[in-house]
Amino acid sequence: MPSASDLLSSVFGFSAFRPGQEDIVRAVTEGRNTLAIMPTGGGKSLCFQLPALCREGVTVVISPLIALMRDQVRGLKEAGVAAGALTSGNTDEETRAVFDALDAGSLKLLYMAPERLASAGTANMLRRIGVGLIAVDEAHCVSQWGHDFRPDYLRIGELRQALGVPLAAFTATADAETRDEIVARLFDGAPPEIFLRGFDRPNIHLAFAPKDGPRRQILDFAAARKGQPGIVYCGTRAKTETLAQALAQDGHAACAYHGGMGPDARRHVEARFQTEDGLIVVATVAFGMGVDKPDIRWVAHADLPKSIEAYYQEIGRAGRDGAPAETLTLYGPEDIRLRRTQIDESLAPPERRAADHARLNALLGLAEALGCRRQTLLGYFGEAAQPCGKCDLCDTPPEVFDATEAVQKALSAILRTGEWFGTGHLVDILTGTTTDKVRARRHDQLPTFGVGREFDRKGWQAVFRQMMGRDLVRPDPERHGALRMTAAARPILKGEEAIELRRDTIRAAGRARPAVK
Ligand code: ADP
Ligand code: ZN
Fold this sequence. Notes:
This protein is α/β, with parallel strands linked by helices. The chain has helices at about 5-10, 20-30, 45-55, 65-80, 90-105, 120-130, 155-165, 175-185, 215-225, 235-250, 265-275, 310-315, 335-345, 350-365, 375-380, 390-395, 405-415, 425-430, 435-440, 455-470, 490-495, 505, and strands at about 35, 60, 85, 110, 130-135, 165-170, 195, 205, 210, 230-235, 255, 280-285, 300, 325-330, 400, 475, 480-485, 500. Belongs to the helicase family. RecQ subfamily.
Protein backbone atom coordinates (compact mmCIF):
# COMPACT_ATOMS: atom_id res chain seq x y z
CA MET A 1 0.00 0.00 0.00
CA PRO A 2 1.39 3.43 -0.90
CA SER A 3 2.44 5.64 2.01
CA ALA A 4 0.42 8.62 3.20
CA SER A 5 2.88 11.07 1.71
CA ASP A 6 2.76 9.29 -1.67
CA LEU A 7 -1.02 9.53 -1.68
CA LEU A 8 -0.82 13.16 -0.62
CA SER A 9 0.83 14.04 -3.90
CA SER A 10 -0.47 11.34 -6.24
CA VAL A 11 -4.16 11.56 -5.31
CA PHE A 12 -4.57 15.01 -3.78
CA GLY A 13 -1.84 16.83 -5.65
CA PHE A 14 -0.37 18.53 -2.58
CA SER A 15 3.34 19.04 -2.09
CA ALA A 16 3.27 18.96 1.70
CA PHE A 17 1.00 18.54 4.68
CA ARG A 18 -0.45 21.63 6.19
CA PRO A 19 0.25 22.34 9.84
CA GLY A 20 -1.30 19.70 12.03
CA GLN A 21 -2.47 17.44 9.21
CA GLU A 22 0.32 14.92 9.35
CA ASP A 23 -0.20 14.02 13.01
CA ILE A 24 -3.96 13.77 12.62
CA VAL A 25 -3.69 11.67 9.48
CA ARG A 26 -1.37 9.28 11.31
CA ALA A 27 -3.69 8.92 14.31
CA VAL A 28 -6.78 8.38 12.18
CA THR A 29 -5.02 5.93 9.88
CA GLU A 30 -3.87 3.93 12.87
CA GLY A 31 -7.47 3.66 14.01
CA ARG A 32 -7.27 5.81 17.11
CA ASN A 33 -10.37 7.75 18.13
CA THR A 34 -9.61 11.38 17.41
CA LEU A 35 -11.09 14.80 17.85
CA ALA A 36 -9.35 17.42 15.75
CA ILE A 37 -10.02 21.11 16.13
CA MET A 38 -8.75 23.06 13.15
CA PRO A 39 -9.62 26.51 11.86
CA THR A 40 -11.88 26.79 8.83
CA GLY A 41 -9.85 26.39 5.70
CA GLY A 42 -7.15 24.55 7.64
CA GLY A 43 -7.62 21.39 5.60
CA LYS A 44 -9.80 19.09 7.71
CA SER A 45 -11.23 17.00 4.90
CA LEU A 46 -7.84 15.61 3.93
CA CYS A 47 -7.51 14.31 7.50
CA PHE A 48 -10.25 11.73 6.91
CA GLN A 49 -10.05 11.36 3.12
CA LEU A 50 -6.44 10.26 3.14
CA PRO A 51 -6.83 7.72 6.01
CA ALA A 52 -9.94 6.40 4.22
CA LEU A 53 -7.66 5.34 1.38
CA CYS A 54 -5.13 3.74 3.71
CA ARG A 55 -7.67 1.74 5.70
CA GLU A 56 -9.72 -1.36 4.99
CA GLY A 57 -13.43 -0.97 4.42
CA VAL A 58 -15.73 1.97 3.83
CA THR A 59 -15.29 5.29 5.61
CA VAL A 60 -18.65 6.81 6.44
CA VAL A 61 -18.52 10.60 6.49
CA ILE A 62 -21.31 12.40 8.29
CA SER A 63 -21.78 16.05 7.46
CA PRO A 64 -24.71 18.45 7.68
CA LEU A 65 -23.67 20.39 4.59
CA ILE A 66 -25.12 18.83 1.48
CA ALA A 67 -23.47 21.13 -1.03
CA LEU A 68 -20.12 20.56 0.60
CA MET A 69 -20.55 16.79 0.51
CA ARG A 70 -21.42 16.88 -3.16
CA ASP A 71 -18.36 19.04 -3.86
CA GLN A 72 -16.10 16.66 -2.01
CA VAL A 73 -17.53 13.62 -3.77
CA ARG A 74 -17.03 15.29 -7.12
CA GLY A 75 -13.45 16.22 -6.22
CA LEU A 76 -12.67 12.71 -5.03
CA LYS A 77 -14.12 11.11 -8.13
CA GLU A 78 -12.06 13.42 -10.31
CA ALA A 79 -9.01 12.26 -8.41
CA GLY A 80 -9.98 8.66 -9.13
CA VAL A 81 -11.32 7.80 -5.67
CA ALA A 82 -14.52 5.74 -5.36
CA ALA A 83 -16.79 8.02 -3.34
CA GLY A 84 -20.54 8.55 -3.15
CA ALA A 85 -23.11 10.47 -1.17
CA LEU A 86 -26.54 9.66 0.18
CA THR A 87 -28.32 12.94 0.64
CA SER A 88 -31.70 14.46 -0.09
CA GLY A 89 -30.09 16.24 -3.02
CA ASN A 90 -29.53 12.96 -4.89
CA THR A 91 -31.26 11.91 -8.07
CA ASP A 92 -32.61 8.33 -8.02
CA GLU A 93 -29.92 7.42 -10.44
CA GLU A 94 -27.17 8.76 -8.16
CA THR A 95 -28.59 6.84 -5.23
CA ARG A 96 -28.76 3.63 -7.25
CA ALA A 97 -25.13 4.08 -8.33
CA VAL A 98 -24.07 4.46 -4.70
CA PHE A 99 -25.87 1.28 -3.65
CA ASP A 100 -24.43 -0.61 -6.61
CA ALA A 101 -20.92 0.47 -5.65
CA LEU A 102 -21.57 -0.54 -2.03
CA ASP A 103 -22.83 -3.97 -3.11
CA ALA A 104 -19.80 -4.41 -5.34
CA GLY A 105 -17.61 -3.52 -2.35
CA SER A 106 -15.81 -0.88 -4.36
CA LEU A 107 -16.78 2.28 -2.47
CA LYS A 108 -14.10 3.84 -0.22
CA LEU A 109 -15.98 6.88 1.09
CA LEU A 110 -19.69 7.14 1.76
CA TYR A 111 -20.95 10.63 2.62
CA MET A 112 -24.20 10.76 4.50
CA ALA A 113 -26.51 13.43 5.84
CA PRO A 114 -27.26 12.94 9.56
CA GLU A 115 -31.03 12.58 8.89
CA ARG A 116 -30.28 9.22 7.33
CA LEU A 117 -29.17 7.86 10.69
CA ALA A 118 -32.77 8.01 11.93
CA SER A 119 -33.94 5.18 9.68
CA ALA A 120 -33.56 1.56 10.75
CA GLY A 121 -32.61 0.66 7.19
CA THR A 122 -29.48 2.79 7.42
CA ALA A 123 -28.15 1.07 10.52
CA ASN A 124 -28.62 -2.33 8.89
CA MET A 125 -27.04 -1.19 5.69
CA LEU A 126 -24.02 0.17 7.54
CA ARG A 127 -23.65 -3.09 9.40
CA ARG A 128 -23.63 -4.99 6.13
CA ILE A 129 -21.19 -2.96 4.06
CA GLY A 130 -18.09 -3.30 6.23
CA VAL A 131 -17.53 0.16 7.69
CA GLY A 132 -13.91 0.70 8.74
CA LEU A 133 -14.08 4.24 10.05
CA ILE A 134 -16.61 6.93 10.88
CA ALA A 135 -15.67 10.53 10.19
CA VAL A 136 -17.83 13.32 11.58
CA ASP A 137 -17.51 16.75 10.07
CA GLU A 138 -18.82 19.81 11.94
CA ALA A 139 -18.82 17.74 15.11
CA HIS A 140 -20.00 20.72 17.19
CA CYS A 141 -23.47 20.05 15.73
CA VAL A 142 -23.80 17.50 18.52
CA SER A 143 -23.73 20.30 21.06
CA GLN A 144 -27.06 21.52 22.28
CA TRP A 145 -25.69 24.90 23.27
CA GLY A 146 -24.34 25.86 19.93
CA HIS A 147 -26.60 27.38 17.28
CA ASP A 148 -25.91 24.50 14.88
CA PHE A 149 -27.43 21.74 16.98
CA ARG A 150 -28.57 18.74 14.90
CA PRO A 151 -30.59 16.23 16.93
CA ASP A 152 -29.60 13.43 14.54
CA TYR A 153 -25.98 13.92 15.56
CA LEU A 154 -26.94 12.39 18.91
CA ARG A 155 -27.28 9.02 17.16
CA ILE A 156 -23.66 8.96 16.06
CA GLY A 157 -22.31 7.80 19.41
CA GLU A 158 -24.58 4.76 19.36
CA LEU A 159 -23.64 4.03 15.80
CA ARG A 160 -19.97 4.03 16.74
CA GLN A 161 -20.61 1.54 19.51
CA ALA A 162 -22.83 -0.64 17.35
CA LEU A 163 -20.28 -0.86 14.56
CA GLY A 164 -17.28 -1.06 16.87
CA VAL A 165 -15.09 1.08 14.62
CA PRO A 166 -12.90 4.12 15.31
CA LEU A 167 -14.37 7.58 14.99
CA ALA A 168 -12.67 10.76 13.89
CA ALA A 169 -14.47 14.01 14.66
CA PHE A 170 -13.64 17.43 13.23
CA THR A 171 -14.69 20.94 14.08
CA ALA A 172 -13.51 24.51 13.90
CA THR A 173 -15.23 25.41 17.17
CA ALA A 174 -12.69 25.17 19.91
CA ASP A 175 -14.28 26.36 23.15
CA ALA A 176 -13.86 23.99 26.04
CA GLU A 177 -17.56 23.42 26.74
CA THR A 178 -18.34 22.36 23.21
CA ARG A 179 -15.29 20.15 23.21
CA ASP A 180 -16.38 18.39 26.41
CA GLU A 181 -19.83 17.86 24.99
CA ILE A 182 -18.46 16.36 21.78
CA VAL A 183 -16.31 13.98 23.78
CA ALA A 184 -19.19 12.93 26.01
CA ARG A 185 -21.70 12.41 23.21
CA LEU A 186 -19.61 10.93 20.43
CA PHE A 187 -16.96 9.08 22.39
CA ASP A 188 -18.74 7.82 25.47
CA GLY A 189 -16.43 5.28 27.14
CA ALA A 190 -13.69 5.64 24.51
CA PRO A 191 -12.06 9.06 24.96
CA PRO A 192 -10.40 10.37 21.83
CA GLU A 193 -6.97 11.76 21.28
CA ILE A 194 -7.54 15.51 20.97
CA PHE A 195 -5.65 17.61 18.46
CA LEU A 196 -6.00 21.22 19.39
CA ARG A 197 -2.95 23.04 18.38
CA GLY A 198 -2.66 26.49 17.05
CA PHE A 199 -0.56 26.46 13.92
CA ASP A 200 1.88 28.94 15.30
CA ARG A 201 5.43 27.93 16.13
CA PRO A 202 6.32 31.03 18.13
CA ASN A 203 9.95 30.07 18.74
CA ILE A 204 10.76 30.20 15.03
CA HIS A 205 11.92 33.57 13.73
CA LEU A 206 10.74 34.22 10.17
CA ALA A 207 12.64 36.19 7.55
CA PHE A 208 12.70 36.57 3.78
CA ALA A 209 15.14 38.40 1.56
CA PRO A 210 15.28 39.05 -2.15
CA LYS A 211 18.28 37.33 -3.73
CA ASP A 212 21.19 39.70 -3.96
CA GLY A 213 24.33 37.61 -4.20
CA PRO A 214 22.51 34.55 -2.83
CA ARG A 215 25.58 32.44 -2.10
CA ARG A 216 27.06 35.22 0.01
CA GLN A 217 23.69 35.70 1.75
CA ILE A 218 23.58 32.03 2.76
CA LEU A 219 27.24 32.00 3.80
CA ASP A 220 26.70 35.08 5.97
CA PHE A 221 23.60 33.58 7.56
CA ALA A 222 25.47 30.35 8.35
CA ALA A 223 28.55 32.23 9.59
CA ALA A 224 26.43 34.03 12.16
CA ARG A 225 25.29 30.61 13.45
CA LYS A 226 28.56 28.72 13.32
CA GLY A 227 28.54 25.40 15.12
CA GLN A 228 24.73 25.17 15.22
CA PRO A 229 22.95 22.41 13.33
CA GLY A 230 21.03 23.72 10.33
CA ILE A 231 19.50 22.83 7.00
CA VAL A 232 19.88 24.72 3.74
CA TYR A 233 17.21 23.82 1.19
CA CYS A 234 18.12 24.24 -2.48
CA GLY A 235 16.06 23.99 -5.63
CA THR A 236 18.47 21.70 -7.49
CA ARG A 237 20.74 18.76 -6.73
CA ALA A 238 23.73 20.49 -8.30
CA LYS A 239 23.34 23.48 -6.02
CA THR A 240 23.34 21.32 -2.88
CA GLU A 241 26.81 20.09 -3.88
CA THR A 242 28.33 23.48 -4.70
CA LEU A 243 26.84 25.20 -1.68
CA ALA A 244 27.98 22.41 0.66
CA GLN A 245 31.49 22.87 -0.70
CA ALA A 246 31.37 26.62 -0.23
CA LEU A 247 30.21 26.17 3.38
CA ALA A 248 32.98 23.64 4.01
CA GLN A 249 35.53 26.12 2.65
CA ASP A 250 34.16 28.66 5.10
CA GLY A 251 35.07 26.24 7.89
CA HIS A 252 31.66 24.63 8.54
CA ALA A 253 30.94 20.94 8.83
CA ALA A 254 28.60 20.64 5.85
CA CYS A 255 27.43 17.94 3.48
CA ALA A 256 25.03 17.62 0.57
CA TYR A 257 21.91 15.47 0.45
CA HIS A 258 19.61 14.78 -2.49
CA GLY A 259 17.56 12.10 -4.16
CA GLY A 260 20.28 11.33 -6.69
CA MET A 261 22.57 9.93 -3.97
CA GLY A 262 22.47 6.23 -3.22
CA PRO A 263 20.43 5.02 -0.24
CA ASP A 264 23.57 4.24 1.75
CA ALA A 265 25.05 7.66 1.22
CA ARG A 266 21.77 9.24 2.22
CA ARG A 267 21.43 7.16 5.35
CA HIS A 268 24.99 8.08 6.24
CA VAL A 269 24.16 11.80 6.09
CA GLU A 270 20.98 11.29 8.11
CA ALA A 271 22.92 9.43 10.80
CA ARG A 272 25.66 12.07 10.92
CA PHE A 273 23.06 14.83 11.25
CA GLN A 274 21.42 13.06 14.20
CA THR A 275 24.62 12.43 16.10
CA GLU A 276 27.16 15.06 15.09
CA ASP A 277 27.17 18.48 16.69
CA GLY A 278 26.65 21.44 14.43
CA LEU A 279 26.44 19.73 11.04
CA ILE A 280 24.88 21.66 8.16
CA VAL A 281 22.97 19.59 5.61
CA VAL A 282 22.53 21.25 2.24
CA ALA A 283 19.62 19.42 0.70
CA THR A 284 16.79 19.21 -1.73
CA VAL A 285 13.32 18.66 -0.30
CA ALA A 286 14.13 14.93 -0.30
CA PHE A 287 15.67 15.65 3.12
CA GLY A 288 13.28 15.97 5.97
CA MET A 289 10.60 13.30 5.90
CA GLY A 290 12.63 10.96 8.06
CA VAL A 291 14.51 13.59 10.03
CA ASP A 292 13.59 13.66 13.66
CA LYS A 293 16.09 15.97 15.26
CA PRO A 294 14.60 18.27 17.86
CA ASP A 295 17.42 20.80 18.09
CA ILE A 296 17.81 22.03 14.52
CA ARG A 297 18.61 25.68 15.18
CA TRP A 298 18.13 27.15 11.73
CA VAL A 299 16.69 26.49 8.29
CA ALA A 300 17.59 28.54 5.23
CA HIS A 301 16.05 28.38 1.77
CA ALA A 302 18.56 29.19 -0.94
CA ASP A 303 15.63 29.04 -3.39
CA LEU A 304 11.94 29.74 -3.03
CA PRO A 305 9.97 26.71 -1.76
CA LYS A 306 7.21 25.17 -3.86
CA SER A 307 4.19 26.47 -1.98
CA ILE A 308 3.25 28.12 1.29
CA GLU A 309 2.52 24.65 2.71
CA ALA A 310 5.95 23.38 1.71
CA TYR A 311 7.52 26.51 3.25
CA TYR A 312 5.74 25.97 6.55
CA GLN A 313 6.63 22.30 6.66
CA GLU A 314 10.30 22.93 5.86
CA ILE A 315 10.89 25.77 8.31
CA GLY A 316 8.85 23.77 10.83
CA ARG A 317 11.72 21.28 11.10
CA ALA A 318 13.64 23.90 13.07
CA GLY A 319 13.29 24.30 16.83
CA ARG A 320 11.12 21.28 17.62
CA ASP A 321 12.58 21.46 21.13
CA GLY A 322 10.88 24.82 21.62
CA ALA A 323 14.14 26.76 21.93
CA PRO A 324 14.64 29.75 19.59
CA ALA A 325 15.34 28.91 15.97
CA GLU A 326 15.89 31.08 12.94
CA THR A 327 14.96 30.91 9.29
CA LEU A 328 15.80 32.81 6.14
CA THR A 329 14.12 32.34 2.78
CA LEU A 330 15.65 33.80 -0.37
CA TYR A 331 13.66 34.47 -3.48
CA GLY A 332 14.12 36.11 -6.82
CA PRO A 333 12.33 36.59 -10.11
CA GLU A 334 13.97 33.51 -11.60
CA ASP A 335 12.42 31.39 -8.80
CA ILE A 336 9.01 32.77 -9.57
CA ARG A 337 9.49 32.10 -13.27
CA LEU A 338 10.66 28.55 -12.58
CA ARG A 339 7.77 27.73 -10.25
CA ARG A 340 5.17 29.17 -12.61
CA THR A 341 6.62 27.20 -15.49
CA GLN A 342 6.66 23.99 -13.45
CA ILE A 343 2.99 24.46 -12.67
CA ASP A 344 2.01 25.37 -16.22
CA GLU A 345 3.92 22.48 -17.69
CA SER A 346 2.58 19.90 -15.26
CA LEU A 347 0.04 17.43 -16.56
CA ALA A 348 -2.43 18.28 -13.80
CA PRO A 349 -5.98 19.30 -14.77
CA PRO A 350 -6.63 23.05 -15.13
CA GLU A 351 -8.36 23.50 -11.74
CA ARG A 352 -5.43 21.94 -9.98
CA ARG A 353 -2.97 24.14 -11.83
CA ALA A 354 -5.05 27.17 -10.89
CA ALA A 355 -4.95 26.06 -7.24
CA ASP A 356 -1.17 25.60 -7.46
CA HIS A 357 -0.80 29.12 -8.84
CA ALA A 358 -2.91 30.38 -5.96
CA ARG A 359 -0.73 28.54 -3.42
CA LEU A 360 2.37 30.00 -5.03
CA ASN A 361 0.76 33.45 -4.93
CA ALA A 362 0.17 32.99 -1.22
CA LEU A 363 3.86 32.26 -0.71
CA LEU A 364 4.88 35.23 -2.83
CA GLY A 365 2.45 37.39 -0.91
CA LEU A 366 4.24 36.29 2.23
CA ALA A 367 7.63 37.04 0.66
CA GLU A 368 6.52 40.55 -0.33
CA ALA A 369 4.37 41.16 2.76
CA LEU A 370 4.19 44.72 4.04
CA GLY A 371 3.41 43.74 7.64
CA CYS A 372 4.08 40.95 10.14
CA ARG A 373 4.95 37.71 8.36
CA ARG A 374 3.53 35.46 11.04
CA GLN A 375 0.20 37.23 10.84
CA THR A 376 0.20 36.72 7.07
CA LEU A 377 1.23 33.07 7.34
CA LEU A 378 -1.26 32.14 10.04
CA GLY A 379 -3.96 34.13 8.30
CA TYR A 380 -3.48 31.93 5.27
CA PHE A 381 -4.09 28.88 7.44
CA GLY A 382 -7.19 30.48 8.89
CA GLU A 383 -5.79 31.54 12.25
CA ALA A 384 -6.01 35.13 13.46
CA ALA A 385 -2.91 36.57 15.13
CA GLN A 386 -1.38 39.76 16.43
CA PRO A 387 1.89 41.16 15.05
CA CYS A 388 4.42 38.71 16.45
CA GLY A 389 7.57 40.65 17.23
CA LYS A 390 9.57 37.69 15.93
CA CYS A 391 9.92 38.24 12.23
CA ASP A 392 12.10 40.48 10.11
CA LEU A 393 9.19 42.82 9.34
CA CYS A 394 8.28 43.23 13.01
CA ASP A 395 11.98 43.80 13.78
CA THR A 396 12.25 46.47 11.07
CA PRO A 397 8.93 47.59 9.62
CA PRO A 398 9.41 48.21 5.93
CA GLU A 399 8.99 51.63 4.48
CA VAL A 400 6.33 51.65 1.80
CA PHE A 401 5.61 54.22 -0.86
CA ASP A 402 2.77 54.92 -3.24
CA ALA A 403 3.97 53.05 -6.30
CA THR A 404 0.86 53.51 -8.41
CA GLU A 405 2.66 55.62 -10.97
CA ALA A 406 5.69 53.33 -11.17
CA VAL A 407 3.47 50.29 -11.61
CA GLN A 408 1.48 52.08 -14.31
CA LYS A 409 4.70 52.87 -16.16
CA ALA A 410 5.82 49.24 -15.91
CA LEU A 411 2.44 47.96 -17.13
CA SER A 412 2.45 50.40 -19.98
CA ALA A 413 5.92 49.20 -21.06
CA ILE A 414 4.54 45.65 -21.06
CA LEU A 415 1.42 46.49 -23.04
CA ARG A 416 3.10 48.75 -25.57
CA THR A 417 5.47 45.94 -26.47
CA GLY A 418 2.62 43.46 -26.94
CA GLU A 419 3.35 41.40 -23.77
CA TRP A 420 6.24 39.74 -25.59
CA PHE A 421 9.24 40.72 -23.40
CA GLY A 422 10.93 39.82 -20.12
CA THR A 423 12.08 42.03 -17.28
CA GLY A 424 15.52 42.84 -18.73
CA HIS A 425 14.22 44.39 -21.92
CA LEU A 426 11.36 46.17 -20.15
CA VAL A 427 13.83 47.73 -17.74
CA ASP A 428 15.94 48.90 -20.70
CA ILE A 429 12.90 50.65 -22.11
CA LEU A 430 11.89 52.25 -18.82
CA THR A 431 15.38 53.50 -18.02
CA GLY A 432 15.94 54.68 -21.59
CA THR A 433 18.83 52.32 -22.31
CA THR A 434 19.49 51.98 -26.02
CA THR A 435 20.55 48.38 -26.57
CA ASP A 436 20.77 46.64 -29.95
CA LYS A 437 17.49 44.87 -29.21
CA VAL A 438 15.82 48.15 -28.29
CA ARG A 439 17.03 49.74 -31.51
CA ALA A 440 16.14 46.75 -33.67
CA ARG A 441 12.59 46.72 -32.35
CA ARG A 442 12.37 50.52 -32.52
CA HIS A 443 11.38 50.51 -28.87
CA ASP A 444 13.30 53.77 -28.42
CA GLN A 445 10.43 55.35 -30.33
CA LEU A 446 7.85 54.29 -27.73
CA PRO A 447 6.31 56.97 -25.52
CA THR A 448 7.31 54.78 -22.56
CA PHE A 449 11.00 54.88 -23.53
CA GLY A 450 12.98 56.54 -20.76
CA VAL A 451 9.96 57.51 -18.62
CA GLY A 452 11.31 55.59 -15.65
CA ARG A 453 14.51 57.39 -14.83
CA GLU A 454 13.53 57.78 -11.17
CA PHE A 455 14.89 54.27 -10.47
CA ASP A 456 18.00 52.50 -11.63
CA ARG A 457 17.94 48.99 -13.12
CA LYS A 458 17.93 47.23 -9.79
CA GLY A 459 15.16 49.47 -8.59
CA TRP A 460 12.98 48.57 -11.55
CA GLN A 461 13.81 44.90 -11.15
CA ALA A 462 12.57 45.14 -7.57
CA VAL A 463 9.38 46.81 -8.82
CA PHE A 464 8.82 43.99 -11.30
CA ARG A 465 9.58 41.36 -8.67
CA GLN A 466 7.09 42.85 -6.26
CA MET A 467 4.56 43.06 -9.08
CA MET A 468 5.08 39.36 -9.75
CA GLY A 469 4.74 38.70 -6.04
CA ARG A 470 1.38 40.45 -6.04
CA ASP A 471 0.39 38.55 -9.20
CA LEU A 472 -0.07 41.75 -11.19
CA VAL A 473 2.11 40.30 -13.91
CA ARG A 474 2.93 36.71 -14.78
CA PRO A 475 5.66 35.21 -16.92
CA ASP A 476 4.12 33.28 -19.80
CA PRO A 477 6.03 30.03 -20.45
CA GLU A 478 4.69 29.93 -23.99
CA ARG A 479 6.39 33.23 -24.65
CA HIS A 480 9.75 32.33 -23.10
CA GLY A 481 8.78 33.91 -19.82
CA ALA A 482 7.58 37.20 -21.29
CA LEU A 483 5.63 39.18 -18.68
CA ARG A 484 1.89 39.50 -19.19
CA MET A 485 -0.54 41.57 -17.24
CA THR A 486 -3.14 39.82 -15.05
CA ALA A 487 -6.70 40.96 -14.42
CA ALA A 488 -5.67 42.09 -10.94
CA ALA A 489 -3.53 44.83 -12.50
CA ARG A 490 -6.28 46.40 -14.57
CA PRO A 491 -7.75 48.71 -11.88
CA ILE A 492 -4.25 50.01 -11.12
CA LEU A 493 -3.56 50.70 -14.75
CA LYS A 494 -6.86 52.52 -15.05
CA GLY A 495 -6.11 54.57 -11.94
CA GLU A 496 -9.06 53.08 -10.03
CA GLU A 497 -6.81 51.54 -7.38
CA ALA A 498 -3.60 52.70 -5.76
CA ILE A 499 -0.78 50.35 -4.80
CA GLU A 500 2.00 50.53 -2.25
CA LEU A 501 5.31 48.77 -2.66
CA ARG A 502 8.18 48.29 -0.29
CA ARG A 503 10.83 50.91 -0.59
CA ASP A 504 13.60 48.90 1.12
CA THR A 505 14.49 46.63 -1.75
CA ILE A 506 14.20 49.45 -4.21
CA ARG A 507 16.48 51.68 -2.23
CA ALA A 508 18.90 48.85 -1.48
CA ALA A 509 19.14 48.76 -5.21
CA GLY A 510 21.80 51.41 -5.23
CA ARG A 511 21.77 55.05 -6.15
CA ALA A 512 18.08 55.19 -6.84
CA ARG A 513 16.68 58.65 -6.39
CA PRO A 514 13.41 58.79 -4.52
CA ALA A 515 10.33 58.49 -6.65
CA VAL A 516 8.96 61.78 -7.87
CA LYS A 517 5.77 62.01 -5.88
P1 ADP B 1 -11.72 22.91 6.11
O1 ADP B 1 -10.76 22.69 7.21
O2 ADP B 1 -12.33 24.26 6.14
O3 ADP B 1 -12.71 21.79 5.95
P2 ADP B 1 -10.77 22.00 3.58
O4 ADP B 1 -10.56 20.61 3.94
O5 ADP B 1 -11.93 22.32 2.70
O6 ADP B 1 -10.82 22.94 4.86
O7 ADP B 1 -9.45 22.57 2.93
C1 ADP B 1 -9.32 23.94 2.64
C2 ADP B 1 -8.46 24.12 1.40
O8 ADP B 1 -7.12 23.75 1.68
C3 ADP B 1 -8.89 23.29 0.22
O9 ADP B 1 -8.88 24.11 -0.93
C4 ADP B 1 -7.83 22.23 0.10
O10 ADP B 1 -7.66 21.84 -1.23
C5 ADP B 1 -6.62 22.91 0.66
N1 ADP B 1 -5.65 21.97 1.27
C6 ADP B 1 -5.90 21.05 2.21
N2 ADP B 1 -4.78 20.39 2.54
C7 ADP B 1 -3.79 20.92 1.80
C8 ADP B 1 -2.37 20.67 1.68
N3 ADP B 1 -1.75 19.75 2.41
N4 ADP B 1 -1.68 21.41 0.80
C9 ADP B 1 -2.30 22.35 0.06
N5 ADP B 1 -3.61 22.64 0.12
C10 ADP B 1 -4.36 21.94 0.98
ZN1 ZN C 1 5.95 39.53 12.95
